[in-house]
Amino acid sequence: MLEIKTAKTHRGRRILEKRAPKLVENEKKTLFVHGTKTSNVLNSVLTELYHLKKENSVKYTRKNDKIRPFEAGGETNLEFFSQKTDCALFVFGSHSKKRPDNLVMGRFYDNHVYDLVEVGVENYRSLQSFSYDKKISPKMGSKPLIAFIGEGFESVDELKHLKEVLLELLRGEVIENLNLAGVDRIYVCTAISSNRVYLSHCALRLKKSGTVVPRMELVEVGPSMDLVVRRHRLPNEGLRKEAMKTAPDRTKKKLKNVKGDPLLGKTGKIYIPDQKLGDMAIPYKAKGVKRERREAKKNKGDADTQASKKQKGEEVST
């Protein structure tokens, strides 16, 4: 029998409530892990990626010799770290003769490895190798823009999968409104070939354009590198369907007799009861009604005058 641990303190209960499934999930955290052996290039890549996502990331510096993401049973330690740190993404770095400067990026679902993308790092340039004005350097916590350039991101399966993982890794918190003054950096991903992507990090400099919208100029601030796709593993169909499930939004009430039309837009039906004109109160203050009353009163008065003259024997004019 497995022992089920429950929280015994208020702090523990708050942590479990924070990690519980929600309709609107929290911002995804990233786990950075080192393998058995890493090179200086990989150490610099992991450190700078960690600093770019420092607010929502966890970095382990110790070497882990039992992590083999693409092998059966080799992802056990990664899943343990995911459960411990509540991370939904991970970046694993390793170096060997067969696969030098190797990065494995992936996602977790329910603390289990969801998918994997393995890339090799080439032509790496760190932050210190770029010279630029420090006033335009991106601020920590700012929302980045992400641009994917090239047809390969739409036609090649490996690059399509890499695009999904990079988008999850770099975009940060999902927001609805954005202030243009707070946009100060952009990630540019360019598909050079069917298995090579050039990744660069640029700062945005606002220039005068003569209009309300300013002109944006890109200044490369680093890091930049070539990512060569080596292996990738998609999730199986059952796991994908399970991860894509969404709970129904019960807060939104259904409107009766309302439907949407592609041409007319939002249309609806209304109920109008039968009009009973016999019971309707008619106002008698109209001018036409008053005139008719005056004419009827005048005719009645003339008839009474003629009748009284006739009784007296006077001559009645006709």
From TrEMBL:
Compartments it resides in: Nucleus, Nucleolus
GO CC terms in record: nucleolus
Entry's Gene Ontology molecular function annotations: rRNA binding
GO process terms (BP): maturation of LSU-rRNA from tricistronic rRNA transcript (SSU-rRNA, 5.8S rRNA, LSU-rRNA); ribosomal large subunit assembly
Family matches, as SMART domains: Brix
Ranges for domain Brix: 28-238
Keywords: Nucleus
Pfam families per record: Brix
Record region (Disordered): 283-318
Bias-annotated ranges (Basic and acidic residues): 292-303
Ranges in coiled-coil conformation: none
Principal place of residence: nucleus
Superkingdom: Eukaryota
InterPro entries per the UniProt record, alphabetical: Brix, Rpf2
Family under the similarity heading: Belongs to the RPF2 family.
Name this protein carries in UniProt: Ribosome production factor 2 homolog
Source species of the chain: Chenopodium quinoa (Quinoa)
